[in-house]
């Protein structure tokens, strides 16, 4: 493995030369133009945001799907909720005690990323997130409907509806917004059979509005459109995983996702429609799957969404509405093909949970995976066990992904454009990424928690608000 990923400066310059050959040998394929990189002439239908020219819309996602094999899944069977389904109660208790002991010891030692100031900022994010409510049915008494105001509900074409919902949600803080029309034979199977708390999600012909009881949540069949959206995460903070400092990145992102859901539910109710949301984090349906079908990104080797603009540096959410929305199509930006060669996320996974096989597979790794799609299935038990050891949520695979690189230099646009238009240089691009993008050697399984970047340095950085660049990938930024 080490021989495969270590490069000398001479080898790196050789790869840069190969990239130059790529640009000259395939100009028609890449056709990189700075004005397109700046977002001033991207081709796309009228909407609130547009994609780079090398992101192609396709009829089917790049990840193969067998809808006949796929069934609706119970969310509490994931390792996130159902860890003791896959390890014994005794082992789970042992890991919990180890987690508590490690966090206390590292705090006393002042371990970078686990010091009091790191724990304080993590506690602040968790506190704020817990203050923001989430609701399946959305606001009812708090928001006036058009009927309350004495006017008819908003009417428009599905395309106009998609445009105004995208614009509103981007204004609320969403990075991407896309739409999926539910089909009983396909995409409807991406809704959970049971939510995280064990409540059945029942698609009902007898309900006009979402309703929940002690045992079930009723989703009216008139709600045929899924709104899929992402919220951008701070890469600089994720670089400091697996630590208390790094872990609060996701808490802050989920906090923003909750706020966006609440505002969107209020927005749609004010227009005369309803939106059923997540009752809690990661509820309602399989977020990455809906995002792929909506064209927000592709599934990558880490078996999570990778977007052209931010890589995996996003969290993904979803809602169901009865407002007819023009569906967006899946995309092919060359990401899944690139993942066949790259393997960086697997090499930097300290638990060894991400497979290194070149080709994806239909064979799931365990009951925590939903069958019916061809991907690289992670060993979630290994991943979650490592979380218990470090006392945080890790996320090194997200930060290490070459697609997460900030697009401050034109070379990043050239590389992504090349990958998006041809596969013949993918091996060279992957090798270059390891050398130019990451300066910490791969960990290998069972490694001690060492951040990709100095945790103490983060406190001295002059980062933008929320630690993210909201101008990336948008023509009017």
Q: Provide the succession of SSEs.
A: HHHHEHHHHHEEEEEHHEHEEEEHHHHHHH
Number of strands: 11
Mean pLDDT: 85
Look at the helices and sheets and give the structural class.
alpha+beta
Q: What proportion strand? A: 5-15%
Give the assembly state of these chains: single chain
Helix content: 25-40%
Largest sheet: 4 strands, antiparallel
Low-confidence stretches: 1-7, 21-46
Could you tell me the radius of gyration in angstroms? 22 Å
Summarize the structure.
The chain is of the alpha+beta class and about 475 residues long. It is built from 19 helices and 11 strands. Strands 2-6-10-7 form a 4-stranded antiparallel sheet, with helices on both faces. Strands 3-5-4 form a 3-stranded mixed sheet, with no helix packed on it. A two-stranded antiparallel ribbon has the order 1-11.
Give the helix/strand layout.
Layout (H helix, E strand, L loop, with lengths): L1 H4 L3 H17 L1 H4 L3 H4 L18 E2 L21 H4 L6 H21 L6 H16 L14 H4 L8 H15 L4 E5 L18 E5 L6 E2 L3 E5 L4 E8 L2 H4 L5 H28 L3 E2 L10 H7 L4 E2 L5 E2 L7 E8 L9 E2 L2 H8 L1 H4 L32 H11 L5 H5 L9 H12 L4 H12 L17 H4 L19
Parallel strand pairs: 3-5
Antiparallel strand pairs: 1-11, 2-6, 4-5, 6-10, 7-10, 8-9
Helix pairs in contact: 2-18, 6-15, 7-11, 9-11, 13-18
């Amino acid at each position: 493995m080490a021989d495969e990923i270590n490069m000398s400066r001479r080898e790196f310059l050789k790869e840069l030369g190969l990239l130059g050959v790529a640009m000259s040998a395939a100009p028609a394929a890449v056709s990189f133009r700075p004005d397109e990189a700046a977002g001033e002439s991207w081709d796309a239908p009228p909407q609130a945001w547009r994609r780079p020219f090398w992101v192609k819309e396709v009829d089917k996602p790049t990840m193969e799907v067998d809808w006949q094999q796929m069934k609706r899944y119970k969310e509490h069977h994931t390792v996130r909720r159902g860890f003791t389904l896959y390890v014994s109660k005794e082992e789970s208790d042992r890991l919990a005690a180890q987690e508590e002991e490690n966090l206390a010891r590292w705090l006393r030692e002042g371990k970078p990323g686990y010091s009091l100031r790191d724990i304080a900022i993590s506690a602040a994010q968790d506190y704020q997130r817990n203050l923001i409510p989430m609701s399946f049915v959305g606001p009812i008494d708090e928001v006036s409907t058009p009927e309350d105001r004495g006017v008819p509900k908003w009417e428009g074409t599905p395309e106009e509806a998609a445009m105004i919902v995208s614009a509103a949600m981007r204004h609320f803080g969403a990075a991407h917004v896309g739409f999926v029309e539910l089909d009983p034979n396909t995409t409807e199977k991406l809704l959970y059979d049971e939510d995280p708390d064990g409540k059945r999600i029942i698609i009902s012909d007898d309900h006009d509005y979402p309703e929940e009881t002690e045992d079930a949540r009723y989703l009216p069949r008139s709600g045929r459109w899924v709104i899929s959206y992402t919220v951008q995460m701070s890469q600089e903070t994720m670089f400091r995983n697996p630590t208390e400092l790094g872990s609060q990145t996701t808490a802050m992102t989920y906090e923003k996702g909750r706020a966006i859901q609440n505002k969107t539910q209020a927005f749609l109710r004010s227009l005369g429609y309803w939106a059923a949301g997540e009752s809690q984090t990661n509820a309602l349906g399989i977020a990455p799957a809906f995002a792929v079908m909506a064209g927000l990104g592709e599934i990558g080797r880490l078996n999570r969404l990778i977007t052209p603009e931010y890589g995996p540096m996003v969290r993904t959410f979803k809602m169901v509405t009865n407002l007819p929305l023009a569906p967006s199509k899946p995309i092919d930006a060359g990401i899944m093909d690139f993942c066949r060669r790259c393997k960086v996320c697997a090499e930097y996974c300290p638990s060894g949970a991400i497979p290194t096989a070149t080709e994806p597979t239909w064979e799931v790794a365990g009951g925590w995976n939903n069958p019916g799609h061809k991907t690289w299935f992670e060993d979630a038990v290994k991943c979650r066990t490592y979380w218990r050891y470090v006392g945080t949520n890790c996320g090194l695979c997200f930060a290490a992904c070459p697609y997460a690189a900030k697009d401050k230099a034109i070379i990043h646009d050239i590389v992504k454009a090349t990958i998006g238009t041809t596969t013949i240089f993918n091996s060279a691009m992957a090798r270059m990424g390891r050398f130019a993008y990451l300066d910490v050697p791969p960990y290998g399984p069972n490694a001690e928690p060492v951040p990709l970047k100095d945790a103490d340095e983060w406190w001295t950085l002059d980062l933008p608000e929320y630690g993210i660049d909201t101008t990336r990938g948008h023509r009017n930024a």
